[in-house]
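We read letters as residues; the integers encode the fold. Take this protein.
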Amino acid sequence: MSKYIAKGIIDMPSSGIREFFDVANMMKDAISLGVGEPDFETPWHVREAAISSIEKGLTSYSSNTGMIELREAISDYLDERYDIQYAPEHQILVTIGASEGIDLALRALVNPGDEVLVVEPSYVSYKPCITMCGGIAVPIVTKAENEFRLTPDELKACITPKTKALILPYPNNPTGGIMEIDDLAAISKVIIENDIIVISDEIYSELTYGGRHASIASLPGMYERTIVLNGFSKAFAMTGWRLGYAAGPEEFIYNMNKIHQYIAMCAPTPSQFAGIEALRGADRDNDIEIMREAYDARRKLIVGRFRQMGLDCFEPRGAFYVFPSIQKTGMKSKDFCKELLYDQKVAVVPGTAFGECGEGFIRCSYAYSVENIEEALDRIEIFVKKHIK
């Protein structure tokens, strides 16, 4: 039956994140550190807002761009937190998760043959989405010795006359790396000189440790060439609600919405009511801080334990992942993950799921209970001691 399937889809690899997680689900007593999903429940006052909307029968389609009340709340939030101002009427689009925002932004920008720069290691969906709209994904390899930050020289080396856009994924999944304001200022000069559009995926913006997240859209000359993507999944523990948003210049948002109209129509209405409460509720900052403090404690725990095992482990300053090097074991990333799963019943993700430059690394999420993390680390330590050289 494969003759009926588009060749580009046949050639597209399945998600490297799900592979080991799905096997672990079939194993008794297995522990997964594989999937990046908060272990916190959506705050009750947010759930209650959605429940109330359903009880009142407020379940009709919203505007394609999303409820104006939600877009106003998003506008105020971005202004307050990141000093970027967007008109809710025509510069903000509510999407079905930030993932839809990635797809819409690329389809609105990319012509067949256009090159899109992808900072790697990075989230698994960027390259397939570029391919599906006829673009060419060009990886920019970042390095642990630079804390996985994108440098101006690395950026310059990958630009060609065909370069159209850059996907900037910070805080980063899988490394936990961040870009501070000086880092962003340095690359913004290169971006402006080469007339590149930026798709800035800031879904982990609230999960930044030891400082405050900065958006590249807040820098001079970048506002008019940046699409900011964000959402509610990570900071508000709302993964299953599938609610995100894009903010940017009116022309970008207008054309992204044209695609959105045909493929999705609008984000789920009860989720939008929940989103309003998440952003407007009196407990918003407290909700975020409770989660951030818990993740910060787990971050320190897991980094310390990997280093005690003798593995090199970059200290992440964003998101809820660590990206330790397993090179001292002499094993390939995928082999390490497979043998760990069957030997110790612990699922982690090979670094190669996030780009070829991820070879020699694994990704572990610490969006799990301390008890699960500690038990998983005990098992990983047993495995590493068998293999470390």
